[in-house]
Amino acid sequence: MTDMFHLGWFTNFAPPPWEGQFSGHNGETWANGRFYQDLAQALERARFDYIMLEDSSMVSDAYEGSSRADLKHHLYAPKHDPLALVPLLAAVTTSLGIVATASTSFYPPYQLARTMTTLDHLSRGRAGWNIVTSSEDRAAQNYGRTKLQEHDGRYDRADEFVQVVDALWNSWDDGAIIQDRETGRYVDHTKVHTIDHSGEYYSVRGPLNTVPGPQRRPVICQAGGSPRGKRFAAEHADTIIAQSRGPERMKEFRDDIRRLAAEAGRDPDDIKVLFIVSPLVAASDAEAQELQASSKAQAETNVEKALAHLSALTEVDFSQFDLDAPVTQDITTNGHRTTLSEFLKLGDDGRTLREVAAGWSISAVDLVGSVESVADRMEEVMGYVGGDGFLMSGPMTRTYIGEIVDGLVPELQRRGLTRSDYLPQGATFRENLRSF
Ligand SMILES: Cc1cc2nc3c(=O)[nH]c(=O)nc-3n(C[C@H](O)[C@H](O)[C@H](O)COP(=O)(O)O)c2cc1C
User: Fold this and answer.
1) Which candidate, 237, 244, 292, 291, places its Cα nearest to that of 267?
2) Residue finishing a domain among 295, 325, 358
3) pLDDT at position 428, please?
4) Domain carrying residue 303
5) Is-contact 9 420, C-beta < 8 A?
6) What is the pLDDT of residue 28?
7) What is the rounded distance in angstroms from the CA atom of residue 102 to the CA atom of residue 109?
8) Residue-level pLDDT at 281
9) Those residues with Cβ within 8 angstroms of residue 288's Cβ, 6 or more apart along the chain or in another chain
10) Ligand 1 neighbour 10 (Cβ under 6 A)
11) Do residue 123 and residue 201 come from a single domain?
12) How many angstroms does the Cα of residue 104 sit away from the middle of ligand 1?
């Protein structure tokens, strides 16, 4: 029997589809956050563990040396600051975890620790931080540098960053707030300590000037896929989001993480690995397959979109390659290594760049069919992999969100595969995440 598994939803604070017949005014109004509030409420109704907001901070011109394709297809811009969206989502929900992305390459640790603690209060213990090291020189150039640090070195810096923010989050002892009316003391100063960190990358005195949040340490999310990235994730994360393709590689990835976590002295069960998928559900298997075929036909016209996206996250200009030749294999990047190698692997069978780009998806497994068939497959795959859940990523239309949240998930719940409720209100995000 397959154990219960977790659900997350992967998105960003960017325009949802705006051209379709049901997209209404989304194209104009997404930036005020209302669309995302509706999404968060829908996810909570379906008892998702969390919403995860990815981020980057640049307009890309990696494709053709121009921002044309990036802006035309709104790939990397517009994209608004996900940290600022967290309190809006928290205000309309009670139990959903809310994860926002922030980069260790650009944030000062003090500011990140302070903002995350504030968000943990505002969300009543439901804040999460997706730790990224960033992938693009173009982003570095918005923060006073010409180039991003080398790939593995970015993780060394991130290790020290986490050490600093952990020390800051622990710079106030339990019971520091006394509010003693007799002596008029709000805080007991003997329980608030400097951290006096002086390392290779950071020098931070502390203490933090914020009161520890309900979780003290927000939930840590990470997506490292390279050997160095996996080690970093296994040492620090509460939840890992992964893009391994196929059940065998999913299992291998999770087993690897669990081994690395144990080596780092952690309980592997404290880490929930969620695999990215984009289920396509319809009234019947045949209808779903028809929809998939028509979206494939459409994808051919979207080859540019896929390649511009891949160019942005690798900073390799994919417009230079012949679309009708096999995929060039000797491409390297200082950016998203895992995404690039997964893409190149798709071309192993000799397909052309056009074909691979047209069918490109970072989905771990294909889930196409009626809700019953898709639930069957999810059950089977999770049973084989051993855990810990799926991260949904699909077209951000209201129709699609409804199909997943009010169609697929109730079927999963009926089978006892996903949670039918959270812990009683007041439990933190981490407590919910670790409850099974
Ligand atoms: C589901 C998923 C979400 C990610 N979200 C972000 C993000 O928001 N911002 C970012 O800079 N990188 C993001 N990444 C990239 C990862 O942080 C990481 O760089 C990438 O998976 C490659 O792993 P590696 O750095 O260990 O090579 C994401 C990756 C995955 C698989």
Assistant:
1) 237
2) 358
3) 98
4) 286-358
5) no
6) 87
7) 10
8) 97
9) 280, 281, 282, 368, 369, 370, 373
10) yes
11) yes
12) 13
Same domain, 336 and 372: no
- Which residue among 135, 152, 314 has the greatest number of ligand 1 atoms within 8 angstroms of its CB, and so is best to mutate? 135
Closest CA to 214 of 174, 261, 255: 174
Contacts of residue 263, defined as CB under 8 A and 6 or more positions apart, other chains included, come to 234
Which of the listed residues 340, 358, 376 is the one where a domain comes to its end? Answer: 358
**Type of residue numbered 353:** L
Q: Global pTM?
A: 0.97
| Residue 130 Cα: closest atom of ligand 1 | 8
Class of residue 375 by CB neighbours under 10 A (exposed 0-12, middle 13-18, buried 19+): buried
Largest CA distance in the chain: 80
Specify whether 99 is located in the same domain as 241: yes
Q: Look at residue 272 in the predicted model and tell me its pLDDT.
A: 98
* Pair type for strands 197-198 and 203-204: antiparallel
Pocket lining: 134 vs ligand 1, CB cutoff 6 Å: yes
What are the residue ranges in the chain where pLDDT is below 50? none
User: Among 163, 237, 157, which Cα is nearest to 195's?
Assistant: 163
Q: Whose C-alpha lies nearest to ligand 1, atom 14?
A: 223
- The response to whether residue 172 sits with its C-beta less than 6 Å from ligand 1 reads no
Return the best residue to mutate from 133, 274, 338 for the ligand 1 pocket (most ligand atoms within 8 A of CB): 338
Q: Which tokens hold the place of 364?
A: 């771990």
Q: How far is the CA of 356 from the centre of ligand 1 (A)?
A: 21
Tokens of 51: 């919403």
